[in-house]
Amino acid sequence: MATQQINIPDIGDFDSVEVIEVLVAEGDEVAVDDSLLTLESDKATMEIPAPYAGKITKVTVSVGDKVAEGDAVFEIEVSEAAASPEKAEQKAEEKPAPAKAPEAPKEAPKPAAESAPAPTPSPTAQALTKPVNAQSMGAASHASPSVRAFARKLGVDINTVSGTGPKGRIQQSDIEAMIKSVMQGGAGAGQAQGGMGIPSVPEIDFSQFGETETEELGRIKKISGKFLQTSWLNVPHVTQFDECDITEMDAFRKSMKAKAEKEGVKLTPLVFVMKAVVKALQDFPSFNSSLSPDGQSLIKKHYYNIGVAVDTPNGLVVPVLRDVDKKGIYELSRELMEISGKARDGKLSPKDMSGGTFTISSLGGIGGTQFTPIVNAPEVAIMGLSKAKMQPVWNGSEFEPRLVMPFSVSYDHRVVDGAEGVRFTTTVGQYLTDLRQLIL
Ligand code: CAO
Questions:
Q1: Which CDD domains match (predicted)?
Q2: Residue 131: which pLDDT band, with cuts at 50, 70 and 90?
Q3: Which residue among 362, 387, 403 is best mutated to probe the pocket of ligand 1, counting the most ligand atoms within 8 A of its Cβ?
Q4: For 236-439, CATH number?
């Protein structure tokens, strides 16, 4: 074993070039041609390859240092095989370019123009993709200097990009695909994906498998899709499932149905749920809040506007019923009928859909046992109602037939913790089981 010093080789006309990446750390094993350093001048970026195989024993250079030809940057304990003149010769033969004499590496690294497209990985470039040490290589993001420069120019953190090249090497097209997916996700998605590098879904020509037909999404689906994706990506969701006994509530609702019809309204469980939810929001104010844009504080709202997801032929819309805490069951039923009718006729104004503090998505009229609704950000939580069914419930001495409604609440885990989440659903359930509690 012999220790050799690694110096900056001939780097052309540059005499003071900044180190922008140190790709190895002390203790790393490297092979000949593995990339050790990336340098960047105002004209080009270049990688300094290892002239020997062995173990790095000393790193004398850091990011931000300026280096010139001849500067000592590493010490390496050269492995037997590479140190042997026979093997070294053999290697030089195997890798005609760039050939490096162990004693005095003179081969100038190839500068890559910043705007140059990503080169097709050559055998040498592929060798660079071998992870020397994943930790010291900044999560082992393998990319050529020109691709790194391209990423930097566009403000993309290379470590967040998934490479599709050989051995996971990042190519210019990977960076372009990432930027494209962020742009297609809209402004919100840009915020959501900041630094997360969510890879795009591959484009597939489905016609190769059978006949297809392309139908453009409706306007509402296009708009709501962006909001849903933004929320899905921004909000760490937790969904709490629960169920409650609504036997008494439904008996009451049915007993009031005829009277309600005379008032010109149709009573469904949803309006009772709205009242129970508002009471629970008053008990748990964080569910009626929004996170400040910097994520550092909670904006608690002292008004209770409930958004109701309405299924329309054109897609999902969420009109808002205002001041639900101040309104009675008939008034709410009337408003719900009016606003859902307006939604189905495509006549909602932006004002009808703004100012919500909490949303309810009721699929109970259709079916289902449970589902995970997506928070209507910047609200903090959303409730999903599923279909109530008669079930045998043990009352302590016997099974009784009871009407049980499953429901779920998805919430932003940055705002609500799990214990609070289940306390909220338990409280809503208790109010729905015994509506008298709503007037206490
Ligand atoms: N369990 C059992 N039955 C229920 C129920 C529940 N949880 N919720 C409603 N029902 C019953 C109603 O009582 C009514 O029956 P009757 O006519 O016998 O009284 C029937 O189901 C139909 O109710 P409805 O759906 O017309 O009325 P609603 O007040 O419950 O809901 C509205 C109104 C606008 C929310 C609803 O029509 C709607 O659009 N729901 C779909 C919402 C949606 O798509 N959400 C998904 C969002 S995520 O993609």
A1: lipoyl_domain
A2: very low
A3: 362
A4: 3.30.559.10
DSSP labels, 142-162: -B-HHHHHHHHHTT--GGGPP
How many whole angstroms from 164 Cα to the centroid of ligand 1?
A: 46
Pocket flag, ligand 1, residue 71 (CB < 6 Å): no
Q: For a ligand 1 pocket test, name from 246, 268, 342, 382 the mutation site with the most ligand atoms within 8 angstroms of its C-beta.
A: 268
Q: Which of 138, 49, 152 is nearest to 98 (CA)?
A: 49
Please tell me the pTM assigned to this model.
0.62
Tell me the pLDDT tens digit for each residue of 206-259. Answer: 999 999 999 999 888 988 999 999 999 999 999 999 999 999 999 999 999 999
Tell me the fold of 121-192: Dihydrolipoamide Transferase (4.10.320)
pLDDT digits 0-9 by tens, 32-76: 888 898 887 766 667 888 899 999 999 999 988 999 989 999 999
Q: What is the mean pLDDT of residues 75-100?
A: 50
Provide the β-strand partners of residue 404: 245, 389
Task: Confirm if 27 and 56 have CB atoms less than 8 A apart.
Answer: yes
Q: Is the shortest distance between the CB of 365 and ligand 1 below 6 Å? A: yes
Query: Domain residue spans in the chain?
Result: 2-93, 121-192, 236-439
Centroid of ligand 1 to alpha carbon of 245 (angstroms): 18
Query: In this predicted model, which residue has the larger pLDDT, 104 or 125?
Result: 104
Architecture of domain 2-93: Beta Barrel (2.40)
Q: Is 75 left (phi over 0), alpha (psi -120 to 50) or beta?
A: beta
Among protein residues, the one with the nearest Cα to ligand 1's atom 45 is 361
Cα of 268 vs centre of ligand 1, distance in Å, is 7
Q: Which of 30, 22, 13 is nearest to 69 (CA)?
A: 13
Catalytic center residues: 413
Q: Which residue's alpha carbon is nearest to atom 23 within ligand 1?
A: 365
Residue burial 277-286, b: 16+ Cβ < 10 Å; e: rest: bbbbbeebeb
Q: Indicate if ligand 1 lies below 6 Å from the C-beta of 364.
A: yes
Phi, psi dihedral angles at 358 (to 5 degrees):
-160, 145
